[in-house]
Design goal:
With 262 residues, the chain is of the alpha/beta class. The chain has a single domain, classed as Rossmann fold. Helix content is 42%, strand content 15%. The protein is built from 9 helices and 9 strands. α1 runs parallel beside α8 and α2 crosses α3. It starts with 10 loop residues before the first strand and ends with a helix.
Length: 262
Amino acid sequence: MTAPAAAPPRVVLIAGPGEPTHIVYHALQAAVGVACVIIEEPVGAKQLLKRRLEKLGAATVAGQVLFKAVVEQPLKLMAADRLRAIKRESGLNDGPIPAEAVVAVPSINSAEAIAQLQALKPDVVVVQGTRIIAKRVLQSVGCPFINMHAGITPRYRGVHGGYWALATGDAAHCGVTVHLVDAGIDTGGILAQATIQPTPADSYVTYPLLQLAAGLPLLVQAVRAALAGTLRPVPVVEGPSQLWSHPTLGQWLGGWLRRRVR
């Protein structure tokens, strides 16, 4: 009597909307296959502003808003050719995700998201650009959650770790981390890390794409290890740990004047 065929491994991607999610999906789909993509709605602008005001204060948030309007938007316009070149040189596919592969939920922490995960019975969950994931979600299925973070942890937790490494004169730690997800913010066990070497053509708006390109092979490697049951965090030397936010206009100007970091 022939034994029943083993079920194919189930990789589930949970993500926010946007181009990085498309790139991660296509890389995973080509390498290991993706059973489903659960995409949450973005956090509303008013809610984001309220959270930042409570956490950072009005002066810092005002500086961040000024940076976005005065610096980030012009940088995006100037970087269009460079962004296309990075995608081309790195073989990044930013095409749309097939509609039949996507399930929409209001939040990755919602009851709907938990129900979807439990129904899918994933062997590994890959996280891309979501809200902070609640403990109840992480415990809802018996498999690892893996995230690719745009920064070298634990030094550069939070956002724009590559930019902050350069702006603070720490180019040796400008890179990307693939790590397990726990209830903290970028505090899970480190699986792999890589650094990037930006060119003079790069800036705040291109560093994340360089980090994504450097991190994708590490992410695929980690997913394969999870499917094989050989996933192990790497030993990490104790060092500084800091949670970073978006730069203010003053902080960005300081980085530009001191180190010519755009």
